[in-house]
TrEMBL record:
The keyword Transmembrane does not apply. CDD domains: cupin_Bh2720-like. Residues 30-99 form the Cupin type-2 domain. Residues 107-130 are annotated as: Disordered. Keywords: Isomerase. PANTHER family: LIGAND BINDING DOMAIN PROTEIN, PUTATIVE (AFU_ORTHOLOGUE AFUA_6G14370)-RELATED, QUERCETIN 2,3-DIOXYGENASE-RELATED. This is Mannose-6-phosphate isomerase-like protein (Cupin superfamily). It comes from the Bacteria.
Amino acid sequence: MEHFTIATVAEESADFRRVLWTGEHTQLVIMTIPPGGEIGEEVHEEIDQILTFVSGTGQAVVGGQKKNVAQGDLVVVPAGKKHNFLNTGVNPLVLYTVYGPPEHADKAVHKTKEEADALEEAGKDEPPTS
């Protein structure tokens, strides 16, 4: 059994992205987006994503719709929807997200968005294959 006090674990991480757990069908990831930062516009063609916000304030953009987000909010991104999440506040935007199926390499840690983008472009952030 894996157990996380997820809000605490997420708040304690300064990394842009950290994979906490990877299963066969889902993956748990925590993220910290700095003030003025963003996840980056993307589409996961065959992956559903659920994001829960732990602290900070931001804006969710999913399928062209915009919604402000804050602590306690949850946003669902269905597979195939273009999306982005932006930090609009003065403090880090902290969240955890569940991908189904996994999206990133197991136990991946990306300190910054730039590092995450470079590893993805180099093919070094691929999810495990069954």
